[in-house]
Specification:
The chain has a domain of 72 residues: Winged helix-like DNA-binding domain superfamily/Winged helix DNA-binding domain (Arc Repressor Mutant, subunit A, Orthogonal Bundle). By secondary structure, it is an alpha+beta fold. It has 7 helices and 5 strands, in the order ββαααβααββαα. α4 crosses α5. 61% of the residues lie in helices and 12% in strands. The longest helix is centred in the first third of the chain and has 25 residues. It comes from Actinospica acidithermotolerans.
Length: 174
């Protein structure tokens, strides 16, 4: 197949096919096959980031705001977590989390209250408007993500999800 061909094994060529082909031509001594997967993952991540930012912006949210609101929403009723639990779920520093909670509280999306099990502790609770906003943002996010994945049938998406899990599990501590 020549480099200008628009298909590879019956599939439309993409930019990654072109760059891999160029590297194989220029550096035949190297195995560039990792680029075929990871360059596509990187490109897909850019599209996903754009889709997420769009879904959140449509509801007046920043990505970090959705991260905190969704962690509280996933906690289930009464939709509250300690700041430490929020740190664990959002992977930010204590100072960053304090600032984020302050900003969300100023918007009326969360409230702080005492932890009944720890006199010194605080719990952050999602307000009704925070829950409604998290739910609306999730709905928009899932719509955008479905559009990104629309080229694959459900059976192939399941296989892809399984394969990606095999790759990511090595980086995740339980």
């Amino acid at each position: 197949m020549n480099e200008e061909s628009s298909t590879v094994a019956g599939q439309t060529r993409d930019e990654v096919d072109r760059l891999v082909s160029a590297w194989r031509r220029e550096r035949p001594d190297l195995d560039v096959s990792p680029l075929e997967v990871l360059s596509r993952v990187t490109r897909l991540a850019r599209h996903l980031d754009r889709a997420r930012r769009t879904a959140f912006a449509e509801r007046g949210l920043e990505t970090w705001e959705f991260d905190v609101l969704s962690a509280l929403r996933r906690a289930g009723s009464p939709y509250q977590l300690s700041p430490g639990q929020l740190l664990t779920q959002t992977l930010v520093t204590s100072g960053t989390m304090t600032n984020r909670i302050d900003r969300l509280a100023a918007k009326g999306l969360v409230v702080r209250g005492p932890d009944p099990n720890d006199r010194r502790g605080v719990l952050v609770r999602l307000t009704d408007s925070g829950r409604e906003l998290a739910d609306a943002a999730l709905t928009g996010l899932l719509k955008n993500e479905r559009e990104l994945l629309s080229a694959l049938p459900d059976a192939r998406l399941e296989v892809l999800g399984d394969l990606l899990r095999e790759l990511t599990v090595q980086f995740e501590a339980e």
